Amino acid sequence: MIVSAWSSPSTAASTNSSSSSHDRSFQQCFSSGFQHSYNSTSGSLIFSKNNSAYASLLKSSVRNLRFFNSSEPQFIISPFHESHVQAAVICSKKHGMQVRVRSGGHDYEGLSYVSDVVPFIIIDLFNLRSISIDVENESAWVESGATLGELYYKIAEKSNAYGFPAGSCPTVGVGGHLSGGGFGTLFRKYGLAADNVMDAKIVDADGKLLDRKSMGEDLFWAIRGGGGSSFGVILAWKIRLVSVPPGVTIFNVQKTLEQGATEHLHKWQAIAIVGVANEPSNGGSKTIQISFVSLFLGPAERLLLLMKVSFPELALERNNCIEMSWIQSPLQSFSKAKSDYVKESISKAGLEGLWQRLMEEQTSLLILTPYGGKMSDISDSETPFPHRITWDSDNETQQHIGWMRSLYAHMEPYVSKDLDLGQNDNNNASYAQASTWGLKYFKNNFKRLVRVKTVVDPSNFFRNEQSIPVFPSPQ
């Protein structure tokens, strides 16, 4: 266990006479609980609803505007040191407040900053974003509040021979990404981001600060794909850097239905990323345009030779290819919003039905990301991550949501759903209730996750609408 000394600095939160005694009691508990001296010039640590910066901080990383005016936390904690997180956990538990933990805010169901059960607080890890690169040992320590873009930039500053197999969106927070598994453009070569985690620091439900050795291998297994918010507040990760060549090649070849896109996609499903959108054709009527996108770890000449053998139908040409360094490649990628896992290749009939539904929407975008490669070499039990695939749409109105549900109904034979699998009532489901979605989502890993949860957080303090439950107490 990592040990530090206690001290009692003040915070910069504002209060007034209308604050409840319960709120004041929580603030007093928090202010007296730091294990690290605090310099108030760094900024505020705790923001109440009376603080002028509260609203802007709350909305600073809300990525889904559907939740922009949702339930508000009693306090937002913005820690500068691990002991601030320990104090937040201890005091929240003492005063009956739920905890939501936010790194980048890219969870599109809002689980890191929205709660139907009040009172609750948000621990926003924005200020915990330090990154230390150790090229000699091919590793790095990165705090959970850092973004993927910041991590990639720091790696590239040290060396152009290394990268990390995580996502392509630069504003995604490291904390949520790694604890959920984390896939990106290098995962067919090196596996998930979670497969390349070597150590971690976590604050558990008792406020203890643990590393891999002190937390044990079961908890270390669980937080690499099982969702860290079910088990504690993950502060930092030690990751394994992976080798990348000096130059990589990307291409984006677009084909319409009239150009044989369905036949191409049917074969392409097991090869690389593809984006699907409805677009106006030359005649003005709608058609489906498919973008065949790829990142190749090497020069364009080698890629062209391989494509002539493996996929000559695509007719890839040199002018379709762009060579660049690996650090430049994430800037060429898509964003994503809602995800499913395709269980087997979609049939041509399934694809044609999909095109019909995409054409019904004014604008739509779908992204297919095939697993395989290194992913297939890693056993299902190595990490808890439920291998999934990504569909994309950023529409927010009920009309568009209805269209998405119709689309998902068509795709149901081919995919396993996301939150629609089920969720916990009142954020505190029984094992039996949570099993209805947990066994589908995590498959054989679900019961092991529940065993870990029952040991490390038996009171189910860390919970949300789709968190891991605990086993019922023996009667």
List keywords for this structure.
alpha+beta, 4 domains, signal, oxidoreductase activity, 19 strands, Vanillyl-alcohol Oxidase, Chain A, domain 3, 5-stranded antiparallel beta sheet, Uridine Diphospho-n-acetylenolpyruvylglucosamine Reductase, domain 2, Uridine Diphospho-n-acetylenolpyruvylglucosamine Reductase, domain 3, 15 helices, 475 residues, glycoprotein, 28% helix
Spans of at least 5 consecutive residues whose pLDDT stays below 50 are: 1-18, 388-397
N-to-C CA distance:
33 Å
Number of DSSP helices? 15
> Structural class, from helix and strand content?
alpha+beta
Shape: globular
User: What CATH first level of the largest domain would be assigned?
Assistant: Alpha Beta
Beta strands, count: 19
Major beta-sheet overview: 5 strands, antiparallel
CATH architecture descriptor name of the largest domain: 3-Layer(aba) Sandwich
Strand order of the largest sheet: 5-6-10-8-9
- What is the CATH topology assignment of the largest domain? Vanillyl-alcohol Oxidase, Chain A, domain 3
User: How much helix is in the residues?
Assistant: 25-40%
